[in-house]
Design a protein that fits this description.
It is a single chain. By secondary structure, this protein is an all-alpha fold. The protein has one domain. It is built from 19 helices and no strands. The longest helix has 31 residues. It starts with 15 loop residues before the first helix and ends with a helix.
């Protein structure tokens, strides 16, 4: 039936009308973000990832390099770090050099980047499906708490989502015409994404290889060439940071040392059963044996402290626990994925994420909204697949979210890479439903007019 049909992918050149509409949606997105930052004013915990990013940015702006932020502010020690991937604090440091050194000012910088991500979602939705799908998807992203709360709380997920959207847009162009330049650009963006969240390395394989395989009228030799170009470009972006880590810590640290803390806190007795199943626990100063199995923290007060060595011990602790409890891993893995998608102990998960500075009411609202959007997205992706619209790039971010949750732990902010897929998929369903309603009402209108 005509009412079931989704419009074919949008034209390569967007119309002026589309730009005006997308500009209006982007303006709404920016307004929402500014109001949340200025009026709601989510707190940034004194000790936490957001504060670390803020201090790292200002230390970089002051010429101190990548040093453990709290070791300097609390103990007066200058200790090298690779605890966090470098791109997010580096971007903030560029603005800190211009005088944007406050938490609120740096949040507003992220609001601009987040708004650009919303515009990118609109473009991707239009090119993959239709103009209306792109605009509806952008509107959903503009008001979704799960998208804008990372900006309000100064977290790296904002930049990561913007880079994921840019990678999707470049993948569309690369699969249309497999040129060296297009795959080079895709590889560079994916390399930057890896320097924001390491799991983007998996995303590179899921986007670059299929883009070459599905590109029309391309020889096998050409496919190999463009795939190699994209992957080499990605590695080339990451390697200077890896070399810095090698020379600093005398250890192989491709992106960051936080995998050790993640594995130690995710693989322990408290997270393999009980109320924290599938979550992450730290047990600083805990005295009991069971609690001591979780991540107990480390800092630079040790003589000749080497963060990579400490992270390596934590990593081995987590992997040893994992190896000793393989029978429990299916249950734990399922709990982790369901936590990330807000489907396992959602009330508890909302409270846990509020500890990171997210306003609990807005976190709850975002969870509820995604409960509505995720089934709509699933239906939309099925509809698009049945009509062979080539939306496979949208599945890649979902895969990395699931894989990273299984390998580490469950957290709703880890879902940020899949949010573009969720809003675009939901927009496909909403537009299809609107078309069905309109097409059914048209004959009645014509009869009444007659």
């Amino acid at each position: 039936m005509a009412s079931d049909r989704i419009a074919p992918p949008g034209p390569a050149r967007p119309s002026r009308r589309f730009f005006l509409a997308l500009g209006a949606v982007s303006a709404l997105a920016f307004l929402v973000r500014v109001l949340i930052i200025v009026i709601v004013e989510p707190r940034v915990p004194a000790l936490g990832d957001a504060s670390a990013y803020h201090l790292l940015a200002n230390h970089l702006a002051d010429g101190r390099g990548y040093i453990r932020p709290f070791d300097l502010t609390r103990f007066g020690l200058v200790v090298p770090t690779a605890e966090y991937p470098p791109l997010h604090p580096f971007v903030l440091s560029l603005f800190a050099r211009l005088g944007v050194r406050s938490v609120e000012g740096q949040r507003l910088v992220l609001a601009v980047i987040g708004t650009a991500g919303v515009g990118g979602i609109g473009w991707v939705g239009r090119r993959m499906v239709s103009t209306r799908v792109g605009l509806v998807a952008a509107a959903l992203a503009a008001v979704s708490p799960m998208v804008f709360l990372s900006e309000a709380t100064l977290m790296s997920e904002t930049i990561f989502m913007a880079l994921v959207v840019a990678a999707l847009a470049l993948t569309i162009r690369a699969r249309e015409q497999a040129t060296i330049a297009r795959f080079l650009a895709l590889g560079i963006v994916l390399g930057l994404a890896v320097l924001t969240r390491a799991e983007a390395g998996v995303l590179a394989v899921l986007l670059i290889v299929p883009a070459a395989v599905f590109a029309p009228q391309v020889t096998a030799r050409r496919r190999i060439l463009v795939v190699a170009t994209g992957l080499i470009a990605m590695v080339a972006v990451v390697v200077p940071w890896t070399v810095r880590n090698q020379t600093t810590f005398h250890a192989f640290v491709p992106v960051s040392n936080n995998l050790g803390t993640a594995l130690a806190g995710a693989n322990c007795s408290l997270t393999y059963s009980g109320s924290s199943l599938g979550s992450w626990r730290s047990t600083f100063g805990a005295g009991d044996t069971a609690a001591g199995e979780c991540f107990t923290g480390f800092n630079g007060r040790e003589p000749h402290f080497n963060e990579a060595v400490a992270a390596g011990r934590a990593r081995r602790q987590g992997l040893d626990y994992f190896g000793d409890h393989l029978a429990q891993t299916p249950k734990v893995a399922a709990a982790r994925v369901l936590r990330t998608f807000g489907l396992f102990r959602p009330g508890q998960q909302i409270e846990l994420e509020a500890l990171e500075g997210r306003p609990i009411g807005w976190e709850r609202l975002g969870t509820w909204l995604d409960w509505v959007l995720m089934p709509l997205a699933a239906v939309g992706l099925v509809l698009a697949f049945r009509r062979r619209l080539g939306i496979w790039p949208l599945l890649a971010p979902v895969v990395i979210v699931v894989v990273s949750s299984i390998l580490t732990y469950g957290n709703q902010r880890f879902r940020i890479g899949a949010e573009p897929t969720i809003v675009i998929g939901a927009a496909i369903t909403l537009v299809a439903v609107a078309d069905r309603i309109r097409n059914r009402s048209t004959p009645t209108t014509q009869v009444a007019a007659g």
